[in-house]
Amino acid sequence: MDKLKKFQLMEKIARELEDVRNSQQAVLEKIGKIEVDNIELSDKNIEKTIPDIYQRTADNSDAIKALLESFQEQTSEFGEKNNVDKLLEQQQINNIK
Fold it and tell me: Which of 24, 40, 51, 86 is most buried by its number of CB atoms within 10 A?
């Protein structure tokens, strides 16, 4: 795989990780709403189970965030090291020809 294609794939994966992180955040918000709604309902099963689900989801969200930040840094370093801006510029010139 050439360097430009690798960089583009890395950027794609970073965007997908960002999407997963956003989805996890939405799940956490929904779980929180369920917990609040259950205050009025007082379902014992929800009351017992939802805090554990929330915690596991929050832990996963933290892990995804850490992975995303690390991978974004790795992608940026790869781009700088391999002069991806120049490679992109050359690719655009080649496509015009």
Answer: 24
